[in-house]
Amino acid sequence: MVSTRSAAQASPARRAVPWARAGALLAVVLIVDRITKHLVVTGIPIGAVHRLVPGIELVHIQNNGVAFGFLSSGGAPVLVLVVAALLALVVFFVRRPTRRGLWIPTGLLVGGAIGNLIDRLSGGSVTDFIKLPLWPAFNVSDMAITFGVLSLLYVLEGPRRHSEPDGD
Questions:
Q1: Catalytic site residue 119?
Q2: Full-model pTM
Q3: What would the pLDDT profile of 111-136 be if each residue is shown by its tens digit?
């Protein structure tokens, strides 16, 4: 039997599961991001390039932009927009934590944003280290943000089950 209760009426235990999942994913993103950035900062001089496999290089670049170095001269307005977008996502998650799969983009986006924010606050720029042909260097937080945006689009616009509009 399918429950017709809204997300607001969901049991506290049912509402806690997506929070735990989002928190765990956020923690994984942060841990992997911090470890990889530490390895790069301590092991690769700024500007150095190491060929990992054909088409993928490890580099050490410090950037002032958002994901993939874009909007490097955006300054405070870009930061305000990023914070506003994250705040909107968190508010949406707070209001609908049991929406199917919403914990994934929430964990990825918040974890990625915090990972890059830690860099900005501690050193004024973000450490990037993965370089693909014809693409700016990026890091684990940038990947989490990218996959977070894609998964958010899927959660919001992808196929929906009519019987469980807000399930896990």
A1: no
A2: 0.81
A3: 999 999 899 888 888 999 999 999 99
